[in-house]
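Open question from group meeting: does this chain pack into something compact, or does most of it stay loose? Before anyone orders reagents, we agreed to write out a predicted structure and look at it together. Recording both the input and the output here so the notebook holds the full record.
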Amino acid sequence: MTRPHAPARLAITMGDPAGIGPEIIVKAAHALRERIESGRLMLSVVGSNAALERAQSQLGLASAASLYTAVDVGPIDAPVVVGEISPAGGEWAFRAVERAVRMTQGGQADAIVTAARRRGLALSVPTDVAEERGYGVHGTVDGHEVQLGKASW
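Structure tokens returned:
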């Protein structure tokens, strides 16, 4: 559905908050300042608010926080250590994608942005994808049935 003269609303998934995603997002928001401030673009960053705040501080770009809405998907019980791969970091990344999907389904975002392809990860094209309104989406990836949505589904 097209919204005339409305800003593009992007949900940006952070990925693992222990990685470089938070810094890239803060820098990207800063680089997109003119589009955001002119009302042509709205960003929602989905992931860890603490990781975003840490990135803003490290980069000296605290003003970048005014350029997006932070959508925290925590808490996660296990700690996340910057620079270390962990199950907790994977849980943050999964929850970010899950929330971004719900945002697009609910009309709060027009598209989801993620960086998996930029990192050279091999992504398979899903087939037989269908949405079950109010529950989630399902489809086939590499011959495996996949569901994403409510735990009760």
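Observations to bring back to the group:
Strands lie at 8-13, 41-47, 68-72, 111-113, 127-132, 136-141, 144-149.
The longest helix spans residues 87-105.
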